[in-house]
Amino acid sequence: MSAEPGTPTGPPTIPPPGPPPPAPGPSGPRLPEPAREALRKSAQQARKQLRPVRKHLIVLGVAIVIALVFAGLRLLGVGVSGIPVLSRESCTVTAASESYDLTSKQAENASAIAAQAVRRGLPARAASVVLAVELADHSLGRDPAEARALYERLSSVADYRRQSVPGVAQQISDGSRDSYRDSEAQARALASALTGNTPEAFSCVVKGGSSASSGELSPAGLTSRAETVREDVRNAFGRIPDGGYQPGGVTNGHMKGSAHYEGRAVDYFFRPINQRNNIKGWALAQYFVANADRLDVQTVIYDDRIWTRFRSAAGWRDYDVPARGGDQAILEHRDHVHVDVAG
Known about the structure:
This protein has 10 helices and 9 strands. The model is unreliable at 1-14, 23-28 and 73-87 (pLDDT under 50). It has a 6-stranded antiparallel β-sheet with strand order 4-5-9-6-7-8. The chain is an alpha+beta fold. Helix 5 (165-172) packs across helix 6. The chain has helices at 33-76, 104-120, 124-138, 148-154, 165-172, 177-194, 224-237, 275-290, 292-295, 328-331, and strands at residues 91-95, 98-102, 202-204, 242-243, 265-269, 297-302, 305-308, 317-318, 336-341. It starts with 32 loop residues before the first helix and ends with a strand. This is ARB-07466-like C-terminal domain-containing protein. It comes from Nocardioides luteus. The chain crosses the membrane at residues 57-77. Residues 1-34 are annotated as: Disordered. InterPro entries: ARB_07466-like_C.
C-alpha cells in the first residue's frame, strides 16, 4: 500500500543532543551595561520608597478594623471575658447634644458639691453656680468641703436665681466672668444630673474588681463595705430612710441570689412615688455611680433602670424585673434606690 502524497517515508527526525536552542527574542540593539545598571538601581529605589507607604496602609487598615471591633463591643457594653475594657476609666455627663468627660476624682468632687445643694434644699441653679466656680478656678480638684463657703456666700446674693450663672459666680469668687461663662454649660449639665433633675444623665466606666472582704457582718447585719456606704450617704445627704438589712442578716423577702442575703446591699426609700421624690432618688442613684470606684459599688437600681460595674461601659440600662409576685412599682425599684457593694 503506497503512502499518500506528502507523507514522509523515512524514519522520524530526532533532535540532536545538547541544550535546546534559545527562544527567539525581540530583535534590536541591546542596552549598554551602564544603562541597564542605572535602570536596576532606579527600580530598587522605587521599591524602597513604596515600602513605607505599604507599611502605613497596612497599619491603617489594621487600626480601622480594630476600631470597628472595639466600637461594636462598646455598644454591647462588654469586653474581653465580659469586662468593659474598651473605654478608659472615666465619667460622662450628658445634656441635650453635649457630653462632658471627667476623671473619677472630678466626678466624686462634683457629686459631693451637688449633694450639698440637695441636703440644703437648694435648687439646681445653686449647684450650677458653685460648680462653675470649681470647674473654672480649680478644675474640680479641690476638696468639696471647701465649696461649702461658696454656698454660704451664695445665700447673701440677692435674687441669684434670676441672675446669670457667670454673674453670680463672679460675685462669690475671685475669677473672671469670662472663665465662668466658659464653664457654665458643663456646670449646668453636672448640676442637673447630680441633683436628680436629669435622670440617667451621669455614668461612669469603672474597671477592675475589688479585693475580697472578710464577709463578717456588723451588728446591723451589713458588711464593712456596706456600712461604709451608709456612713457616706449620711455625711453627704443626711439621713435617708433605708432598709434591706437586719441584725444577723436577712434570709427572705428578696429574689434568689440577692446581695441582701450576704449583707452587701442597702435600699434607700423615696416614698410616696411622685416627681419630687423621683428627683431625690435620681440624685442619690447618680451619686452612687459617681463614687462607684471609691465605694466599691457593684450595682445601682432605680426607677426601672440599672447600672452595673460589670457592664459600666453600657451606662444605664433597662432593668429586667425578676419573675416573681408583688407590687410592680416596688419590683421596678420606683420607690427605692438599691445599691450593693463588692463582697
